[in-house]
Amino acid sequence: MPVAPTTDPVATDPQPPARPLWRTILTPRWTGLFLLAAAIAAVMSVLGVWQLDVYQSKTAAATAKRAEGAPVPLESLFSVNDGLPSKAVGRQVTVAGTWGPAADQLYISDRRNGDRDGFWVVSPVMLGSSGTEAGAVMVVRGWVATVDDVAAKAPTGPVSLTGAIAASEAQDASGDAAKGRVLQSLRIPTIVHLVDYRIYDAFVVQTSLDSAAGSGQAPASVTPPSPPTDHAGLRNVAYAFQWWIFAAFTLWMWGRMVLDAHRSDEDDQAEGDVEPSGTVSA
């Protein structure tokens, strides 16, 4: 009876452990390329920061230019029928007219002057010389400690002054209008319901009183709010992000090349470990 041939199991050598990635990275070639890539990425990062500094410098210069410009008549920037243009906020303007009714003077509470709390005094100035047809503008004359302060007395007569344009504050003070002439925030939408004439959609924070009838005690001066930021040089922001993307791409390319080289070494090692198999005859 024929006997089936038998074969002895072929002993296989154990596979050597895979070479760790860090050994590939620490070879002179890839260590040197990493230092080169890191240096290039660092230079690109510095260039990005420089472009961002250029943007900030241009923005600061444009914002300061708005506040430091020569005063112009308020009426030349916008009319009483228009909303406040964003480019007008912070501009120095001149106002000429007559102080409005004393009953229309307002006080804005919770205002600091150094380490003291007090009130801003806000008085209307009727523009032009034809009654209320040209409208009025609300002028922040200054700060007082109490509403009964002698300096808070409403002025009368013709006036000419210089100041900075300020926009309405965000806090809603409509609920205060029914309680009297003391408001919590400086808002034209609230004040427009307290007077019977048209008013500009802006405030003028008085910085100097050029001429006025009488010479009574005046409220303490108020520093005009900082003008809104003029974002100039936005192209430099794009350049900054461009440099940072290039820096990240440089490091990513180095990592990709290291991984590819490491996988190639593993494939070469696996091919070298393969031995030809023999055949067994009966």
What characteristics describe this protein?
282 residues, five-stranded mixed β-barrel, 4 helices, 32% helix, disordered C terminus
- Counted by DSSP, the helix tally is 4
Report, as a whole number of angstroms, the end-to-end distance.
Answer: 15 Å
Residue fraction in strands: 15-25%
- Can you list the strand order of the major beta sheet? 2-4-5-8-6
Order of SSEs: HHEEEEEEEHEH
Q: Tally the beta strands.
A: 8
Largest β-sheet summary:
5 strands, mixed, barrel
- What structural class do helix, strand and pairing data support? alpha/beta
Gyration radius over CA: 38 Å
Any low-confidence stretches, pLDDT <50, length ≥5? 278-282
Q: What is the share of helical residues?
A: 25-40%
Compute the average pLDDT. 82
Sum up the overall morphology in one term. Answer: elongated
Question: How is this structure best summarized?
Answer:
The protein is of the alpha/beta class. 32% of the residues lie in helices and 23% in strands.
What can you see in these coordinates?
The chain is of the alpha/beta class and 282 residues long. The protein has four helices and eight strands. It has helices at 21-25, 28-68, 188-191, 234-272, and strands at 72-73, 92-99, 106-113, 116-127, 136-144, 158-166, 182-183, 199-212. A five-stranded mixed barrel has the order 2-4-5-8-6. A hairpin with a 2-residue loop joins β3 and β4. α2 (28-68) runs antiparallel to α4. The longest helix has 41 residues, at 28-68. Mean pLDDT is 82; it is low at 278-282.
